[in-house]
Structures are given as structure tokens and as C-alpha cells.
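For practice. Supply one:
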Amino acid sequence: MRRRHGLSSEKRLRVLLVEDEILIALELESLLQDLGHDVVGIASSSKDALALGQEAKPDLAFVDIHLADGPTGVDVARQLTAQHQVTVLFMTANAKRIPEDFGGAWGVIAKPYTERGVREALAYVTAGQPREPQNERTVTFLPFGATHRERSPKVS
């Protein structure tokens, strides 16, 4: 069940992984399953991600910024959010690739990610943090999951 803002913390989340490095995807899949969530698919390209988004109806997607078919993760995030109301968390080793508007994502997990960082990200999205369309707050979970910082895009 979705809350007004965010995802319900009372159920197993249906998670889509959009990651072209299979070892990273499998490791994250294992971690999410250990945390009690269902991984409904792994996509390595934007085409596969959008198809799985439609078929599997995920609650949450972890989306790598740079996929096998190029830097298309931001486009995937925007489409998953707009077309299927999927909550998105970006994963990237290069935060400079994240657009100012965050492409509709709720946060960014720095790679290499840690279990603590993933746990904090899941806690953040399931807590139902408010999102205002004109002043969206997005959280970056830093390496090692020790702290996070908030970044607000410029509002014109």
C-alpha cells in the first residue's frame, strides 16, 4: 500500500533493479531479499527497464545513471515515475551526472554502495518524506552510509 508521500513500510516492497553490471545487480538483489523485499526484475538497458516497469509493477526502482545503452538512467527514472508511479533511487559513482531536478528520483546512493546506505535509503522512502513539486528535496546517501546530505534544485 502506498502512502500519500512515499511507500508503505508495512509490506514487502516490489523492487526493480536497473543496473548493467550484473555482479552489482546480483549483490543488491541478495541484500534486498535479505532485508525482506521482492526483486521483481533486473534490467541492464533502458528498453528492458521500461518493459519490466510496465510488466512487473514495482513499488521502487534502483536506477543506475549510466546503462549499457548509454547515459539513459535519468530518462528511465522520469518515465518510470511518470508512467507507472514508481519511486526511484539513483545509483551512481559519478554524482555530476545527476540533473539539477534529480529526474524525479527521491535520492541517490553513491557507488560503491553499502548495506547501511541501502537501509537508510529504504527507510527514507518508506518514511514518506514530503515532496513538493516546486521544491523537491532529494537525499544523497554517501559512501559507507555514514551520513547524508540534502540537495534542493534551483527553483525558477
